[in-house]
Amino acid sequence: MVILAGVLSGTATRVVLLRIDYRQYPGYPHGYLAHAFLGFIASALGAVAVPAILKPDFTAVTFLALAAQQFREIRNMERKTLESLEESELVSRGLDYIEGIARTFEARNYLVMGTSFLTSLAAQFWGLPIAVVTAFFAFLTSLYFMSGEVIGDMCTVVPARISFDGPILMVDEISIVNIGLKPMREKIIRDGLAVKIIPKDGNARATIHDIGQRRAIAFTAAAILGTKKDVDIPEFTPLARKNPDTGEVGLFIVPMVKDMERFIAAVKLTPVLESARSKPLNAGSSIDVAKKMDKG
Amino acid sequence: MSTEQILAVVTLDKSQVYYGAPVFLTHNEDEQERMAVSLSGILNAMVHDLGNGTYVLVKH
What we know:
Chain A is α+β, with helices and mostly antiparallel strands. Chain A contains 11 helices and 7 strands. The longest helix of chain A is centred in the middle third of the chain and has 32 residues, at 95-126. By secondary structure, chain B is α+β, with helices and mostly antiparallel strands. Chain B has one helix at 29-43; strands spanning 5-11, 23-25, 46-49, 54-59. In chain B, a hairpin with a 4-residue loop joins β3 and β4 (54-59). Chain B is globular and about 30 Å long.
């Protein structure tokens, strides 16, 4: 009974978390099945831990170490799959984004294990009704942990104008790339969309200057709006370049659906990558110490 | 990171000599533009305008 409660709550958590991540990762039916099942294993491990400790059969707890190993394997699996798909992707995700997704998949299994552990703990000591409540709260906590920051939290995104300075494609005052062919230039003026991403502070600026983060933004925009790019039309590759003076980033795309509102929403919804996040502003205190050291 | 490479040069100006990449001499802008378009399709490369009557095709 105790184990069943844990397993059920854990598996439910995993399935719901799977639904949430569809934006960053196309859910293939086989992928869903694999992850739901691995989630089931994770929750079984978490649930079994409680009776094992109570028995007391402490060697059973070493199973948890085995579980950690198993979940690292999940990270590798996700990374390998995405990396091998990357080559045939018109607009690539970039390695940073892949790493972020792989890490998320690993972390979710730990959350599942935690949920089932807490639930079976509650079921063991306080009975089923309390277990249901615990499961619910653990579930909410998991949701909270898994909804990370998005670009919209740290930057404002405004529409921008595409123009050409000779052959150079400009998004407002930011130069993006040299487009040689006149028909291409005309098409980009006609069909292209551009936005300017304005960081709200120094931390945000450092984050969107990360190349991997910029590629992730371009990927999300292209995934949601579609892209007119093809292997023989590299001119339409979505590109994000920064203004070296102000730190603003200009992003241009030639989408299938020319819809500025959706474009801005896609950019805002791009997750902030763990590897890109940096907080130079919060380094202040240690910088002050270093300055004093200099003065002697 | 990707390694950029100049795959071909399409130029109007005979006096511009390039080494290391095939050079395609053309007689007028129309021909130059058409040549650049077909080469870009064949090589899956991007055409850049150097602004002096010369196009380079670069693989990104």
